[in-house]
């Protein structure tokens, strides 16, 4: 089956409140499926890529084998067609996810169309922003102009214009000790967790004492960990980023794996099999990935060159590392992250990423 995907996204502020819209049509122009959603605070380009991803995902769910993608984003069309390099580091994971979806179809084409021919997707994106913010539609921001990247080289990359991200999982809590799902519940650090957080601060200081910023999930176990790190690197202020919060485990919050397996065996198996499935009353990994990508794009655009410490939870850090390594969804269930474990990666403006370490724990011994 051949379908047409019309996709768009917008951000009121770039970065600012953002939303996406996707329309799937048959070849006669009949609407088969529509999708829209708010993305919190992120950039125009992130929203446009999200619209594309959701449109491709919808086409796949409908059983399409051929897709004609039409967008008014020159940037997305040219990058997905392979004619432009991806300069913005925050867009590279999104382009990789879109490419994985493209591979599921027998044929996919990309066509740039004027905005007036993309009104349906644009209207959905604006409706999503309006519903989230309760504001009237404001003018859209034009996508940034991207020029081709410099030729690749085998020479070790200079760190002069890189952003170093130090990813730190919060210290131990009572739930961590007991192997319980800890999502949105605001569980504090245990005494052991406090000691681990201080040790993590020492490790971060060992990586760099010239920390530009410390950003944290809003939950206490992360904020407290971030405060310990701040004390070790000269009192850098801690900034809360709401979208770095843990996945919502819904009805499974506070339960062990065994308890969930006993009470929800069918739902558990479906959740383990697909990132699109959410726990009952909770949030899927796909949904979490969208907000985490938006948060990371905003962090990279806000702080640019320098060293940024990101204090978060197991799921958001796994999602960041999965995208950085261009890994499959299986990575999420194969990667273990210890409490107060530290991972390090460098990100360049041209989209290159180098993962330096994953789940360092020597500082905890």
Automatic annotation (TrEMBL):
Which SMART domains does its entry note? PGAM
Q: Which SUPFAM superfamilies match?
A: Phosphoglycerate mutase-like, Ribonuclease H-like
Q: Where is this region: Disordered?
A: 1-20
The UniProt entry, under Pfam families, shows: His_Phos_1 (PF00300), RVT_3 (PF13456)
Q: Where is the composition biased (Gly residues)?
A: 10-19
Residues of the RNase H type-1 domain: 1-138
Q: Extract the CDD domains matched here.
A: HP_PGM_like, RNase_HI_like
This chain's protein is named: Bifunctional RNase H/acid phosphatase
Q: What is the lineage of its organism?
A: Bacteria, Bacillati, Actinomycetota, Actinomycetes, Micromonosporales
């Amino acid at each position: 089956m051949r379908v047409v995907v019309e996709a768009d996204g917008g951000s009121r502020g770039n970065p600012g409140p953002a939303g996406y819209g996707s329309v799937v049509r048959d070849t006669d122009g009949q609407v088969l499926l529509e999708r829209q959603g708010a993305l919190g605070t992120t950039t125009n380009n992130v929203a446009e890529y999200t619209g594309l991803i959701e449109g491709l995902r919808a086409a796949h769910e409908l059983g399409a084998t051929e897709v004609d993608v039409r967008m008014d984003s020159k940037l997305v069309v040219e990058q997905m067609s392979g004619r432009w390099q991806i300069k913005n580091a925050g867009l590279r994971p999104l382009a990789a996810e879109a490419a994985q979806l493209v591979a599921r179809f027998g044929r996919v084409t990309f066509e740039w169309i004027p905005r007036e021919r993309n009104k349906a997707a644009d209207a959905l994106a604006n409706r999503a922003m309006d519903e989230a913010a309760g504001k009237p539609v404001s003018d859209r921001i034009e996508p940034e102009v991207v020029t081709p990247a410099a030729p690749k080289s085998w020479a070790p990359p200079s760190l002069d214009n890189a952003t170093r991200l130090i990813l730190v999982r919060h210290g131990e809590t009572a739930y961590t000790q007991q192997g319980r799902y800890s999502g949105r519940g605001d569980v504090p650090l245990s005494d052991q967790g406090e000691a681990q957080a201080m040790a993590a601060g020492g490790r971060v200081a060992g990586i760099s004492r010239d920390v530009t910023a410390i950003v944290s999930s809003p939950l206490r176990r992360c904020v407290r960990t971030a405060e310990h790190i701040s004390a070790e690197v000269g009192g850098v202020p801690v900034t809360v980023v709401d979208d770095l919060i843990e996945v919502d485990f819904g009805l499974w919050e506070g339960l062990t794996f065994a308890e969930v397996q006993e009470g929800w065996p069918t739902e558990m198996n479906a959740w383990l099999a697909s990132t699109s499935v959410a726990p009952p009353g909770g949030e899927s990994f796909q949904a979490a990935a969208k907000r985490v990508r938006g948060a990371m794009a905003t962090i990279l655009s806000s702080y640019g060159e320098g060293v940024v410490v990101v204090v978060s939870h197991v799921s958001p850090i796994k999602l960041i590392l999965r995208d950085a390594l261009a890994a499959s969804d299986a990575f999420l269930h194969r990667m273990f992250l210890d409490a107060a474990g530290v991972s390090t990666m460098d990100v360049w403006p041209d989209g290159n990423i180098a993962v330096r370490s994953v789940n360092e724990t020597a500082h905890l011994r």
